[in-house]
Prior knowledge:
The complex is a heterodimer.
Chain A: E1 7-9, E2 17-22, E3 28-34, H1 37-54, E4 60-66, H2 71-85
Parallel strand pairs in A: 3-4
Antiparallel strand pairs in A: 1-2, 2-4
Helix pairs in contact in A: 1-2
Chain B: E1 4-9, H1 13-16, E2 26-30, H2 40-53, E3 60-64, H3 73-81, E4 88-91, H4 97-113, E5 122-127, H5 130-134, H6 136-140, E6 148-151, H7 153-159, H8 172-184, E7 188-191, H9 200-213, E8 217-220, H10 226-232, H11 237-255, E9 262-263, E10 266-267, H12 270-289
Parallel strand pairs in B: 1-2, 1-8, 2-3, 3-4, 4-5, 5-6, 6-7, 7-8
Antiparallel strand pairs in B: 9-10
Helix pairs in contact in B: 2-3, 11-12
Amino acid sequence: MKITRSAVAGTLESSDVFVTVAPSEDGLSIHIESVVYDQFSELIRAAVSETLTRFHVNNAVVSLNDRGALDCTIRARVETAIRRAGKGEG
Amino acid sequence: MLRSLLFLPGNSPNMLINGDILGADGIIFDLEDAVAPDEKDAARILVRNCLKQMNLKGITVIIRINSLGPDEYWKEDLDELIPFRPDMILIPKISEPEELKTVAEYISELEKKSGLKEGETLLMPLIETALGVEHAFSIASADKRVAALFLGAEDLTADMHCVRTAQGTEIFYARNRVVLAARAAGIDAIDTPFTDINDEEGNYQDAVFAKSLGFSGKAAISPRHVKAINEVFSPSDKEIEYAYEVLAAIEAAAQQGKGAISLYGKMIDKPIVLRARQVLAMARQLKEKGGAFYE
C-alpha cells in the first residue's frame, strides 16, 4: 500500500498509543517514544514492522507515542493509521 | 447463561483490555454510541485485535454494531468482525422483523465467505423504539439466530417523548411486553442498564425488580454494577435447596403411585417442577463456571 498522505490514530491516554504515518520516498523509518521504552522498544518495533509488512508498506515515516499499550493495541493503531494514510490506494 | 452483560467502549484500550476480569457473563464491545463517527474504523480494528489476543473463554462475546442506516457502518462492522467469531451481535434500534432479517442474511453471506458454520453467530435485537416494542414478538421469532431480546430504555423513552426516571415507571409496560415476547418465542430477555453508576443500591433494586418481571439478565455500563447483577440473577442457596426437595418429593410420590403431592403444605404442580428444574440447571451452569458471585 502506498502512503499518500499523513494520518494519525490512537490517543495519548493510558494503555493507548498515538501513531502518525506520513509519506516518504526513502524507505521505512520508525520512531518510538514510550513510557516503557527500555523494557519493550524492540517488541514495539517488531509489532510496527510486522504490520507495515502485512500491508506492503515500503515507504513511510511512522512515529509512535506509546502510553503502555498492549501488543494488540499497537498493531490496531498502526493498522488504522496505515489504512487512513493510504485510503484510496490498493 | 447471561446474568450480566457489561458494555465496554470499543475505542478505549484501557477499558477493553480488562474486560475479561470484570466478572460479567457477557461483554458487549460497543461500536455504536460509545464511538465517535470518525473513529468507527479505529474501534473495529481495535476490537478485532482484542478478540484475537484476550482470553475470553467462558465469557459470551457480544458486538454492538451500528444501527441500520444510510452510512452502512453496520456492514463494515460485520465485515471486520464476523470472521473472528463473536458469539452474538447486538443490533440497535430494531423496529421491524424485516430489519433483523436483513442483518441475518448479511451475516449468513459473511459466514459462508469466512468458512464458518452458517447460523453460528447469534443475534440479540435491541428493542429501543416504540415500534420495536409493539413488534417485539415478531422480531423475537423472525430468525432462528435470535437468542435474546434486549430492552434499551434510554432511546425508548426519547422515542416515547417521556423522561427516564430511576423508578422506571415509564418503561413498566415495555419491560413486560419484551419479557412476554421473548418468553413466548422461547428466548432470553435482557433488561436495560441502570445508568447512574454511583447508585449501587439503585442498580441492585432495579435488578431485583427486573428479575421479578421475568428478565434473565441485565446489562451494565459500569463494572461496579456487575457483581450485584450476578447475585440477583443467580439462584440463592435457599432456592436450590427447595428445588432439590421438590424433585425428591415428586420422585417419592411417583414411587408410591401418588398423583397429587404437597411440600410444606403447598401443592407441587407442573409449573413448580419446571421452575425447580430451571433453578437446578442454572445452579449446575454456575458450578461449571466456577460458582462466581453466587456461593
